[in-house]
Amino acid sequence: MDFPIPRNSNGVPLSLFLIFFLSTIAISTHASIHIYHDQIFREVGNAYLLSGGSEGLAASLTAIDSSSIHDGGSYIRFENITFLRSKAAARRHKHSNGLVQVIIFEAADRNNIGGSAYGGQRAICCTADLAKMEGCKQGEVIRRPSATDINWPIVMNAHFNGNSLSASMPYTVVRISKTGMYNLFFVACDPKLKGLIMNGKTSWKNPDGFLPGRMAPLMNFYVYMALAYLLLSVIWFFQYVRFWKDVLQLQHCITAVIGLGLFEMFLWHLEYVHFNNTGMRPVALTTWVVTVGAIRKTIFRLLILSVSMGYGVVRPTLGGLTSKVLLLGVTYFLSTELLNITEFVGTINDVSGRARLFLVLPNAFLDAFLILWIFSTLSKTLEQLQAKRSTVKLDIYRKFSNALAVTVIASVAWIGYEVYFKATDPFNERWQSAWIITAFWDALAFALLCVVCYLWAPSQSSQRYAYSEEVGEDSDEEEAQSLTSGKSEGDLGLVKQEKKEKNVGETDDYDEEDNAEEDKRE
What we know:
Largest sheet: 5 strands, antiparallel
Distance between the termini: 79 Å
Number of helices: 14
Number of strands: 10
C-alpha cells in the first residue's frame, strides 16, 4: 500500500499531546530500522499511546521501486506489526472489534491530530462532545486533513476479530514525497485495551540509504575531517622523523593525539557507512569509535593542562602534580566513555531526562574544572617566564594562551547557540542543519590541535632549549631558531659554531651561575 504526502503545511501552536510526544519516545531514534519487542502502550489523556519513532526524511527522488538501498526512494515500511491484548480484554470485546490505529504525520501538521472541547484539555481520541463539534467518529483518533492534501495525516486501522488475542497489520509502505520531520504513533482509544503490547518492525529510508536525515551530512563530514588529520599527520611526521633525536616527551603526546584523531574520524565514517547500508548501528564498531574518541579527548585535555604547567618547556616533570593529573584523566575518561556509550551505543531516548542529566553533569563539571585549572597554571607559567626574561618561550606561551582564550570563548558562544537552537526548535523541524552542532566541536578541537602543533613542532635543538635558562640576546636568538626552525641543520650548526668561537671564554663562566640560579628558582 502506497500513500502520498502533502507538498506544504503550516505550523500551529503546541498541545498537550505533543508534550507527551517529546517526553515519552521510547523507541530508538538512532536507528532507521525500529524494532519493537513487547512494547507496552502508555496511557496519555483519553488514549493509550506508543511512539514508533521520529525522523527527518527527504523526498523521494524516484517513484520506481527497487531493491537497491541507494535507489532514490524514501519511505516508511511496516513489517510484521502485531498487537497483543490480554484474555480479559478479549472477553470484554467478545461482541465488538478492538481498534488500534496507526498515525503518521509531519511535524508541521502536528495540531491536525487531537482536539479540545470548550477550550478544555486537549484530547487525542474523539469523545461524544467532540463528535458534535468536530464531526469526528467517537472512539477513534481525531484527524483533520492537511490544508494541502486531504490524504494526510495518514491513519491506518488494525482490528481484533472476536475474542482473538492478536491483531496484525499488513505489510505496508508509506512513500514520502515531501521533505520533513515525520512522526509515527500507535494509538488505542478503547479503554478496554489497557495493557496492549506491540511487536514488529518499521524501516525508515532516505533516498541515499537508511541513515537518518539529520545525520546523513556527517558521513561526508568525517571524510573531510579524516583527510585534514591525515594532512596534519603527514606534516607532523615529517618533522618528527627529521628531528627524532631531539623529540621531547611533550611531542610524543601530540603525536598520539594526532594518530587517535585520524583513527577516530576513520572509524566514524565506517560506522556511518554501515549504518546507512543496514539501518542499524553496529554495537562493536560504535563502541570502538566512542572509546577511541574518549581516549583522544582525555589525552588532549591532559596535554593542554601539562603544557599550561610548563611541562617539557619550562619544567622537565610535573613533580608532585603527576598523580593528580593522572587521577583527573582517569575520571574524565570514565565520565566521557559512559556518556558516549549511552548516547551512541545505547538508545538515548531509553534514558529518562533525569538519568541523562546525571550523566551529562559530571562531564560538564570536569570540563569546567579543567578550564579553571588550565588558566590558573598558565598564568603562573607566564609569570615565571616573564621573571626569567625568557622572551621566546614567553612569546610562544602568550600565543598559546590567546588560542586557548579564543577556544573557550567560541565554546561558550556555541553552547549558547546550541541551547537557543534546541529551545526554539522543540519538534526538530530544522533537522537538516542539526548536524552542524556535532561537527563544530570536532572542527574546534582540530583547530586547537593545529595551533599546538605549530607552536611545539619538533626542531633540531628541542632538547637543548627545552629547560635551559636564556643568557642575553644571543641565547634568545638561538632559542628562536630552535623553536621556530625554518633553516637546515647544517646552517644552524654554522651559526652555533660561530657563537661558540666568539664566546668560548664567557660560556664556561656563565654555566655555573645559571645552574645555581635555576636550582634556586625550581
